[in-house]
Amino acid sequence: MIIDREHVKEVFATYVADYDITDTKVRLKVEHTYRVADLCDMIAKSLKLSSEDVDLAWLLGMFHDIGRFEQLRRYNTFIDSESVNHAALSADILFTDGHVRDYIQDSTEDKLMEKAIRLHNVYELPKALTDRELMYSQILRDADKVDILKVNCEFPMDEIYNMPMEAFYTDDISPKVLEDSLAHLNVNRCHTVTSIDHLVGHISLVYGLVYPASVQEALRQGFIEQMLSFESRNPKTQESMKKIRDCVHNYMDEKMHG
Questions:
Q1: pTM summary value
Q2: DSSP state of 95
Q3: Nearest to 16 by CA among 39, 42, 34
Q4: What is the pLDDT of residue 42?
Q5: Distance in Å from the first CA to the final CA of the chain
Q6: Band of residue 21 on the pLDDT scale cut at 50, 70, 90
Q7: Which of 21, 58, 110, 111 is the most buried (most CB within 10 A)?
Q8: Which of 160, 64, 72 is nearest to 120 (CA)?
């Protein structure tokens, strides 16, 4: 399948121009999209895929969050549990409404792309995927996770989560969120209650990274370290953060050095 990257970028730019680009949240998702596409490209190349397969990985990055803009317009939040499943909305816009054809004419990879986009935010991938579906789903999920770490550090947390900044400094970490994180698990979203739980949830994304290139990139960017250094004014949270910090450091060392 031949993908014209410049055409894809032009169509995407036209699509997002319909939204308020001066809104921090819109800008955040536009920039996130381009970076995730580049990370998909990098991870696919690290797996020595063919140039066509690398292009397909890049395209998934461009497509994965297309529903975010409509989610924001309709609900003014990025929190799926309070609005709509953004991965399903992205897939619906592209494949149910047919907007995928604005970007590419070839439909041979539609089924694979739709599946990878719908699954990019699930807690766990289903077992019944082909090897190829699994690989593309993992490339996209890795790229998305690595960039979410960056977004958490470069945009104010109160704006991302619609919560007062003061709460991040004073809230407790919920027991189940702490338990998930110390067990090397991605934090289950249903366990997230307090503002600081969101931060811990995003730190714990490193446990879900599949490919060595993704772990290397997360370390190289340094955002995970920045998040681990968050200084709560709540003594109980300070103590929990120290445990999480040690746990993540040990995990990353093991992942990098075996």
A1: 0.89
A2: I
A3: 34
A4: 98
A5: 37
A6: confident
A7: 58
A8: 64
